[in-house]
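Incident review: delayed structure delivery

Summary: a single-chain prediction request sat in the queue longer than the usual turnaround. Root cause was a stuck worker, restarted by the on-call engineer. No data loss occurred. The affected request and its eventual output are reproduced below so the record is complete for anyone auditing the incident later.

Affected input:
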Amino acid sequence: MYAWMAMSAQGGLPPALRGVLLGIVEGLTEFLPVSSTGHLILLSSTLGHEDDASKTLDVVIQLGAVLAVIVYYRALLGRVIAGILKRDPEMLRLVAALAIAFFPAAILGFFFHKAIKEVGFAPVPVAIAAIVGGVAMIVIEMLAKRRPPPEDEGVKSVTPKRALLIGLAQCLSLWPGMSRSMTTILGGQIGGLRTATAAEFSFLLSIPILGAATLFDLAKTGGALLRAPGGPVALGVGLVTAFVVSLAVIAMFLRYLKRFGLTPFGIYRILLGIVVLWAAA
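Output delivered after worker restart:
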């Protein structure tokens, strides 16, 4: 590992290998409540890639995860499109809920995009976010277990009020290391949804929010990534790897949530944050 770190600091890490590493990390962490962006920032920092092109790659590679969601939920998305055309009330409510949850973070991200990348894309802010999010996850899960089990009917149970709560919670994910998946799942839990239902809505919500973030970042700084030596190769390999790994993680995580809770992820986040802060001291 130390040899790789030394190679990378000198620009010697092959672009394809870098793409594979980033794609694996993105695929493993995008839908788990541990922050994919935070892990990508930590990996890029460790490998010595902290320029504008690398920061853009850390965002754009999320497109692989978005494509995985589209493929995994292709049947549901097909019903949604058909429902919109037929003016089906249930599908229209789901689309409205996704729109309500989408806009708060999208608006904030549009106005604070530059500040977030300049200040938040560094190991220490990520570590602090990991610890804060880990504590919040453990506390909210403990409180949720004290309530009677919620009775919901899947993502159709996401009312406009619940969608707004999830959307406001998602704003916290603009802090790199906080985790979009974590904030939206916790927002759903607070709103009275089952953890698995909140996760499924979070996955569907990732399509517009991550898609918009990717396109926005490409429009702003995509040129730096495409002009960087090996940038297109790292991007292409990373997208494919992220897609494959994400597709497997989605199914496994949903099965996990139906049997276990989020506390282990909270403990992991706290330990990760402590280690990063210790290494940065």
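Verification: The longest helix spans residues 195-227.
Action items: add queue-age alerting; document worker restart procedure.
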